[in-house]
């Protein structure tokens, strides 16, 4: 399956209208950044193709989000920038 097909299928499960979490049910939070090219190339001039500072910022963001109230079991970060 190509990425675009998977992306389209997964977006069905994403909704801005979901306002509660059902106890005992696992949830997946997919957080997609906006304008990351502007952030990584124009604002911070990170090194291409891979910058350790950017990696560390992404890891710290995931750690922070994992400690924001829910019992988080797993965190993952990935960027195509």
TrEMBL record:
<protein>
    <recommendedName>
        <fullName>tRNAHis guanylyltransferase catalytic domain-containing protein</fullName>
    </recommendedName>
</protein>
<feature type="domain" description="tRNAHis guanylyltransferase catalytic">
    <location>
        <begin position="8"/>
        <end position="81"/>
    </location>
</feature>
<dbReference type="GO" id="GO:0006400">
    <property type="term" value="P:tRNA modification"/>
</dbReference>
<dbReference type="GO" id="GO:0000287">
    <property type="term" value="F:magnesium ion binding"/>
</dbReference>
<dbReference type="InterPro" id="IPR024956">
    <property type="entry name" value="tRNAHis_GuaTrfase_cat"/>
</dbReference>
<dbReference type="GO" id="GO:0008193">
    <property type="term" value="F:tRNA guanylyltransferase activity"/>
</dbReference>
<dbReference type="Pfam" id="PF04446">
    <property type="entry name" value="Thg1"/>
</dbReference>
<dbReference type="InterPro" id="IPR038469">
    <property type="entry name" value="tRNAHis_GuaTrfase_Thg1_sf"/>
</dbReference>
């Amino acid at each position: 399956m190509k990425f675009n097909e998977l992306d389209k299928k997964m977006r069905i499960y994403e909704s801005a209208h979901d306002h509660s979490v059902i106890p005992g049910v696992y949830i997946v939070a997919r957080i997609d950044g906006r304008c990351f090219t502007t952030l990584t190339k124009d604002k911070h001039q990170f090194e291409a193709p891979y910058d350790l500072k950017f990696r560390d910022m992404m890891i710290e963001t995931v750690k922070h989000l994992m400690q924001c109230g829910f019992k988080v079991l797993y965190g993952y970060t990935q960027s195509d920038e």
